[in-house]
Amino acid sequence: MIALNQPWRLQLVMFLLLCVGTAPSHALGEYGHRLASKITEAHLSQPTREALRAIAGDSDLAALALWADKIRGNPAWSKSKYWHYINVEDGESIAAHKHVPEGDILLALNDARSQLQDKRLPPQQRRQALAFFVHFVQDLHQPLHVGRAADRGGNRIKIRWLGERKQRNLHWAWDTGLLLDDRLTVEQHAQILGQLSPRQIALWKKGSFTDWAKESMALRPQVYEFGPAKQGAVVVLDQAYADRNRPILEKRLAMSAIRLADQLNRIFDPAD
């Protein structure tokens, strides 16, 4: 088990500072976290909302989700950088995967959920656990967070995105690039993706963290399908790649939102 808690006075101050006044942004995956969080909020029961408010105060789910990325540069939380992903080789079984000592996203999710369920823990520790839990459920549904160690989940694959001169990497494309659309606000986008049937919602609620990781890994062929003309030192990702994969990422974010809401409702409103 990995320990999510840190000296609480320092971390509580950091948490409050980072969660206040966070501005909307499309940078570094923030848009995806905001989008998924907005959909999740629409599926929380009233008792769950009240329980989350008691733990996190006025911070919404998006602010909680973004905290886990903002602290990675802080020495006190340097070990948390390993908790955002898991490296699984092609053909390897996730269920049989040997966890590294530093931890990974599956260990972190289980640990955060256990801390959320433990009402004996100090409020600030449960707040941190909540922030990690929200963030990691969302991260797990981005296919490259269940990645190959050789290219660090696509971070080592250089790309040029839709004719831009700027060089980026494949992980950025799936964290951010595929979701960039100035025609929609986060609220509008969430409303569109949140139009789901009761049957679809019920189906998505099934499964474990490991099952969700398997789903992400199963998308690996689509993620790395650049086309025969796109291979090279720098991969050029065109509009066809974006059009083919944007619906996949949007569906994964919607799935993460429904599953996060279900998990939180199970913890804080088990009678629902």
How would you characterize this protein structure?
With 272 residues, the chain is mainly alpha-helical. The protein has a single domain (8-268), classed as P1 Nuclease, CATH 1.10.575.10. Helix content is 52%, strand content 5%. The protein contains twelve helices and five strands. It has helices at residues 8-19, 30-41, 46-56, 61-70, 105-117, 123-140, 170-175, 186-193, 198-204, 209-218, 220-223, 239-268; strands at 86-87, 146-147, 158-161, 167-169, 235-237. It has a three-stranded mixed β-sheet. Strands 1-2 form a two-stranded parallel sheet. Strand 3 and strand 4 (167-169) form a beta hairpin. It starts with 7 loop residues before the first helix and ends with a helix.
Topology:
Elements: H1 8-19, H2 30-41, H3 46-56, H4 61-70, E1 86-87, H5 105-117, H6 123-140, E2 146-147, E3 158-161, E4 167-169, H7 170-175, H8 186-193, H9 198-204, H10 209-218, H11 220-223, E5 235-237, H12 239-268
Parallel strand pairs: 1-2, 3-5
Antiparallel strand pairs: 3-4
